[in-house]
């Protein structure tokens, strides 16, 4: 039995609420169980120096956790004067994941920055950030299309992410913190709406896992991604 009482292939309850931040080009609050992430997208008429004059757009991301997001206060990274390695790794992952769905020629020479702020953490914050970040990006792109700043939709597909793992010897979908902290295997899957794999992060925390177990985790992830994409579509309808 999972601590939450869920079946192995069950996601936590997922809700996505749009239009949270007045001044953002796109924004949403995604709630995956007790993990809550505020995602905003901002448009800037510039690109990084290495893309200047290329005609290509850029999508990047920043990620952070509020001090009270977990049961012990996290010191603000600004106070330390630098970002942790974990933060840098996660925001690079979010940026890579979102760029996988973008036609950067159609976006034009502009940058969209997706900010993901974890309000409350109970496992899977990077996955929730990617899933909610895509919604914020979608809304920002819709704003560009509405004003006529771009003529062709640069988003070629949905992107979402979900965790899977082996808990108590059983492959399960969408680990919360109680499971993540005890899992024998922990993996994150980033996938497109059409089922293409964007990125897979997986590791054995104890005994190695088998190819058959990996295949089972992929199957679980595919089912979870279908549900998350449906949630994305539902909040935008």
TrEMBL record:
Residues annotated for phosphate binding in this entry: 86, 124-126
An annotated GO BP: rRNA 3'-end processing
Keywords recorded for this protein, A-Z: Nucleotidyltransferase, RNA-binding, rRNA processing, Transferase, tRNA processing, tRNA-binding
Domain Exoribonuclease phosphorolytic stretches: 11-140, 159-222
Coiled-coil intervals, chain numbering: none
Catalytic activity, as annotated: tRNA(n+1) + phosphate = tRNA(n) + a ribonucleoside 5'-diphosphate
One Pfam family matching this protein: RNase_PH
GO molecular function: 3'-5'-RNA exonuclease activity; tRNA binding; tRNA nucleotidyltransferase activity
EC main group: transferase
Assigned EC number: 2.7.7.56
HAMAP family in UniProt: RNase_PH (MF_00564)
Subunit structure: Homohexameric ring arranged as a trimer of dimers.
Family, per entry: Belongs to the RNase PH family.
Described purpose of this protein according to its UniProt entry: Phosphorolytic 3'-5' exoribonuclease that plays an important role in tRNA 3'-end maturation. Removes nucleotide residues following the 3'-CCA terminus of tRNAs; can also add nucleotides to the ends of RNA molecules by using nucleoside diphosphates as substrates, but this may not be physiologically important. Probably plays a role in initiation of 16S rRNA degradation (leading to ribosome degradation) during starvation.
Protein name: Ribonuclease PH
Species of the source: Halovulum dunhuangense
Record gene name: rph
């Amino acid at each position: 039995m999972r601590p939450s009482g869920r079946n192995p292939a069950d996601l936590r309850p997922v809700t996505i609420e749009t239009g949270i931040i007045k001044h953002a080009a796109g924004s949403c609050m995604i709630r995956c169980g007790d993990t809550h992430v505020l995602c905003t997208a901002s448009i800037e008429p510039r690109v990084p120096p290495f893309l200047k004059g290329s005609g290509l757009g850029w999508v990047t991301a920043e990620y952070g956790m509020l001090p009270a997001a977990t049961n012990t206060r996290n010191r603000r990274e600004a106070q330390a004067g630098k970002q942790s390695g974990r933060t840098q790794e996660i925001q690079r992952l979010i940026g890579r994941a979102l760029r996988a769905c973008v036609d950067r020629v159609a976006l034009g020479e502009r940058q969209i920055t997706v900010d993901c702020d974890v309000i409350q953490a109970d496992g899977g914050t990077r996955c929730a950030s990617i899933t909610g970040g895509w919604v914020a990006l979608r809304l920002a792109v819709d704003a560009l299309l509405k004003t006529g700043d771009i003529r062709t939709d640069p988003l070629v597909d949905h992107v979402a992410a979900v965790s899977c793992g082996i808990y108590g010897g059983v492959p399960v979908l969408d680990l919360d913190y109680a499971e993540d902290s005890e899992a024998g295997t922990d993996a994150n899957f980033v996938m497109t709406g059409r089922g293409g794999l964007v990125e897979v992060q997986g590791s054995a925390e104890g005994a190695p896992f088998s190819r058959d177990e990996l295949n089972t985790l992929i199957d679980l992830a595919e089912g979870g991604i279908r549900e998350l994409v449906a949630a994305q579509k539902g909040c935008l309808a």
